[in-house]
Specification:
Strand content: 25-35%
Number of helices: 11
CATH superfamily of the largest domain: Dihydrodipicolinate Reductase, domain 2
Strand order of the largest sheet: 14-13-12-11-7-10-9-8-15
Order of helices and strands: EHEHEHEHEHEHEHHHEEEEEEEHHE
Bound molecules: nicotinamide-adenine-dinucleotide
Largest sheet: 9 strands, mixed
Shape: globular
CATH topology of the largest domain: Dihydrodipicolinate Reductase, domain 2
Radius of gyration: 21 Å
Helix content: 25-40%
Structural class: alpha/beta
Number of strands: 15
């Protein structure tokens, strides 16, 4: 047990760090955010002036030399997650890292190994699991309300919301397109709802049909069509070793009715539902029934803050993190499998 405050350092202090993570840490009494590593002058200025963070660095390796730092929060682009996490763990720090945990299976395996060798916590920031809609549904699943969930249709679809920054659309930074950015959220959630089975095989297809066209306008500003080099649409079919399966479809730009469909439809032997809606579909005594759950009556939760609070509790009390790195490994296996299947035209077996 430590008497002093726990110290946190950020690697990457852009959008998600400033809008969500920093406020989560600041809510915690026994935590102090003392350092930021980010090559952006603007990020460094904001860290100091707006958030009162005393130390700023261009190079994250310098930040890792700061002995007082106990926890690293990685909020840089996806392809930095692996080196920054491994270096942080080797420096004896606990790590919470934004999603996707990394951009390949090999990388996640390396991160898990480094975490075990260092005896330090590692968790992917899959905040969707911490939404009140998710917690309540997961409890119902665990209480058997749905029976066996044998199939799910997971959508992370947007009609015209393409994040225009290189962080999300240049492969060398993002590792992939909407599948890595938003697909990872709905897939991780669905996979968790289904009890995290082992992956058996994956088939997939990816497309870049709209993102390079000048006549297609996004709702989130202009992007560079020339350097855009990730998919704008991806779909996959995942089979688990126990025979259950998930269909996943993701897009930044899809010609569809709604502006967004971020949902997962669960098909169980006793009941089904479309998360995050609050209706459960079942049959009782020979009569079809729709049961409405009043999610809005539950206390509000800020999911990014909740994930940070829970991760910190695990560090303090030396408990297992709720988003286990081995679960994130299976999620990245599925996503990498979809890319590999799309490339080769073959089913990928694990
Ligand atoms: N969970 C969520 O809801 C959510 C939402 C948005 C983004 N994200 C994830 O968060 C991460 C960052 O996304 P963002 O929207 O904040 O992007 P961003 O581009 O706004 O911020 C990334 C920051 O990383 C910095 N950076 C670049 N190279 C660096 C280096 N070598 N060392 C340290 N910092 C470096 C950049 O200067 C920038 O300030 C991504 O992994 C993304 O997938 C998660």
């Amino acid at each position: 047990m430590k008497g002093k405050k726990y110290c946190v350092g950020f690697i990457g202090f852009g959008g998600i760090a400033q809008v969500c993570h920093i406020h989560g840490w600041k809510k915690l009494n026994d935590v102090e955010v003392i350092a930021v590593a980010d090559p952006s002058e603007e990020a460094q200025r904001r860290a100091k002036e707006e958030f009162g963070i005393p130390m700023v660095f261009n190079d994250y390796r310098k930040l890792l030399e700061v002995e007082e730092i106990d926890i690293i929060d990685i909020c840089a682009h996806n392809t930095l997650h692996f080196p920054a996490t491994v270096d942080s763990l080797k420096a004896g720090k606990h790590v919470i890292c934004e999603k996707p945990l990394a951009v390949s299976v090999k990388e996640v395996e390396g991160m898990i190994k480094a975490s075990k060798q260092a005896g330090k916590k590692l968790m992917a920031a899959q905040h969707q699991r911490f939404r009140k809609e998710s917690v309540v549904v997961k409890n119902m699943i665990d209480n058997g309300i749905f029976g066996e969930i044998y199939y799910a249709i997971a959508y992370a679809l947007r009609r015209r919301s393409l994040p225009a920054r290189p962080t999300f659309i240049k492969k060398e930074l993002s590792g992939g397109g909407p599948m890595f950015d938003i697909g990872v959220h709905i897939l991780d959630l669905t996979y968790w709802f289904m009890g995290c089975p082992k992956v058996h095989s994956v088939k997939g297809a990816t497309y870049t049909k709209l993102a390079k066209r000048k006549d297609i306008k996004g709702l989130w500003g202009e992007w560079d069509r020339n350097t855009y080099d990730v998919e704008d649409f991806a779909s996959g079919f995942i089979r688990f070793v126990d025979g259950r399966s998930i269909s996943l479809t993701c897009s930044f730009l899809a010609n569809m009715e709604k502006l967004e469909d971020f949902s997962t439809t669960l098909f169980g032997t006793e009941a089904g539902m479309r998360w995050p809606d609050g209706k459960i579909f079942t049959e009782k005594n020979g009569v079809l029934q729709d049961i409405e759950i009043k999610i809005e009556t539950l206390p509000d939760v800020a999911p990014h803050h909740e994930e940070i609070k829970v991760f910190f509790e695990c560090v303090k009390k030396d408990k297992e993190v709720p988003v286990k790195p081995e679960e994130s490994l299976e999620v990245i296996k599925m996503l990498e499998g979809i890319y590999n299947s799309a490339k080769t035209g073959k089913e990928i077996l694990f």
